[in-house]
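Invent a record, attention on tokens:
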Amino acid sequence: MKVAIFFGSKSDVDTMRGAAKALKEFNVEYKAFVLSAHRVPEKLDETIKQIESEGYEVIIAGAGLAAHLPGVIASKTVIPVIGVPVNAALNGLDALFSIVQMPKSIPVATVGINNSYNAGMLAVQMLSLKYPEIKEKLIKFREEMKVKFIKENGEGVEL
């Protein structure tokens, strides 16, 4: 099970680390690529073909501004794409609208602005449909999350 993480600029590294963190928590192999849909489209095409041939099953793509990267990738492969709107301008709303408003028949699942961790978790959920060991880890993760939440919040808070 492998996930590819794409983003358009080295300045997005910190934002996209959350996806890698989530994947690591579930021992999902991943590889990250800095590629631009506008500046190096040929290299992007080549890399998409490469990851298809290597058996990658989910793609996470982060982009800011016009945020075309997730949509361009989705137009070139049938591997599911999860878009991460990156806050590069306009509080990330420009990127969010660009990613979430894909034309009919070329979907991109979209998470919250700068929330690459949730993109990683969504990739894990997708993989859990095929891999029972991932599903078991995900169920355990959710159970532990609930216990931790109750422990930290069960006594109420003083205001």
User: Anything to note?
Assistant: The longest helix spans residues 132-153. The mean pLDDT is 95. Strands lie at 2-7, 29-34, 58-64, 81-86, 109-110. The two ends are 46 Å apart (CA to CA).
